[in-house]
Amino acid sequence: MPHLPGTAGLYPVVEAVQRRLVVSPRTEEGRVYVRLTVSETGDIQDVRLLKGLNAAVDSAVLKAVHRLPRFEPGRQNRQPVKVSLMVPITVLRKYPRKLYFRKPYVKPLPVDPTVPDLSGLSPG
């Protein structure tokens, strides 16, 4: 699947569109669906609005999509291919700092057999 440089998946694309989205504080909140095609070179082509809210929000979302950086193209059998994406954009009046924050996976430390297991002890 195509992705933004240094990221993986669709969430960074949604977050990048939302960071570039400029709407008025009195705008209608909701969800807008956009379909775009990422070419073999990573360029965005054929941007279409599948479902919108109103003309002002729809045009702001389309402008934000066109301002996205070049993608890493999708690959099939190690060859770059053209891929179509459907991106759901949630339009809010005010966005939290990180909309899609996931904690990084931390591999648990191995259990040392020389340390006794104290998990069964009661406090106090």
From TrEMBL:
Keywords: Cell inner membrane, Cell membrane, Membrane, Protein transport, Transmembrane, Transmembrane helix, Transport. It is a single-pass membrane protein. GO terms for cellular component: plasma membrane protein complex. Pfam families: TonB_C. Coiled coil: none annotated. Belongs to the TonB family. This is TonB family protein. It comes from Hymenobacter setariae.
